[in-house]
Specification:
homodimer; 188 residues; mainly alpha; Tetracycline Repressor, domain 2; 2 domains; elongated; DNA-binding
DNA sequence: GTCTATATAATGATAGAC
DNA sequence: GTCTATCATTATATAGAC
């Protein structure tokens, strides 16, 4: 667990994270990862026994990043509606990546849910993270009873925007739909 | 182009269609297809030179099926709002497959849009088919100016429902969200 | 912890006898 | 149009020298 080893490990995870997002999990090979990480072929097995283990490490890192983001939103405002707006605004803020590669959470889960339900279990945690947080915000807004239902509705809307604007590579469509989502939030 | 050859070809397409849907395009190999079709390994190349050609044939067949479905809806009602309701009802009607494998159009496009934009061009036609038809219905409903925007909004909503209920394998969520979509249509 | 060589299985794809 | 054998390539994965 020297400094050098930790750095190599971090580079593998960083490369895999990007590649899984840009090419998909099945579309990314060990060769792709070691090439991107700038390490030697067999070396990757010193850190990860299987491709699944790499995925787990990538998911864990994304979980950490998103937890930090949620903490930042909570620090930014104590108003639940304001916080929900930060979630909606994030979609527009990330429009370039969303339009090019889709939602990193949605596309990963969509791929893994097809025929690898065991593998998908870990990536589903990314959905749960946002779902739980959104549920808390809707509850704080006074919709305790239907908080989870509203959170899932918002996730559906966000995912739908990501899918269609990704398919059509259409940032204008994304912004228009995010606007409608903001209106829905206002009128709640 | 004998009867037997046509039958073999049809079996390849049918097997590939199911496998691409259930396992994804990258997740399906030639071996999988020939095994499912019950033909011999090399034989598939008599009908299709590449995997891409098989995908094209699968997409063409889906296009034919969906065109027939749209024609059926048009025959079923002359009221645009009734027709739009048939679209929304289709989601609930196909909930078992949607919850297990996602939307056959959305998941295919999501996968191919990642790093194979050329390949995705053909599968995008499936989206266009529905988008154009929905646009016509919204126009006939008196929303000529924003017909396309409404059609894309409906597609976003439908895709979002498919993604999230697929990820959570949750048919109840799907039905609840389809209900909300029906309300949106009513209040239009 | 790094690097080279290699094993083994699966991939997409072909050639040619029948 | 059917079937067998096989190719070249790539994949995941390992062993072992350094």
């Amino acid at each position: 667990m020297s400094t050098k080893g930790e750095k190599t490990r971090a580079e593998i995870i960083a490369s895999a994270k990007t590649l899984f997002y840009e090419r998909g999990y099945a579309g990314t090979s060990f060769s792709d990862i070691v090439d991107a990480a700038g390490i030697y072929r067999g070396n990757i097995y010193h850190y990860f026994k299987t491709k699944d283990e790499i995925l787990q490490a990538v998911v864990d890192q994304r979980l950490d990043e998103f937890r930090a983001l949620l903490a930042q939103w909570e620090a930014q405002s104590s108003q639940p509606k304001e916080r929900l707006r930060l979630f909606v605004n994030m979609i527009a803020g990330r429009k370039n990546d969303l339009v090019r590669y889709g939602c990193p959470i949605g596309t990963l889960n969509t791929e893994l849910a097809k025929e690898q339900r065991e593998l998908q279990q870990s990536s589903k945690a990314l959905f749960d993270l946002f779902c739980d947080w959104l549920t808390s915000q809707f509850a704080a807004l006074g919709h305790a009873k239907e908080a989870r239902s509203l959170a899932l509705h918002l996730l559906c809307r966000a995912q739908g925007i990501s899918v269609v604007s990704h398919v059509y590579e259409d940032a204008k469509l994304l912004k228009r739909e995010v606007g409608k989502l903001g209106t829905w939030l206002d009128e709640l």
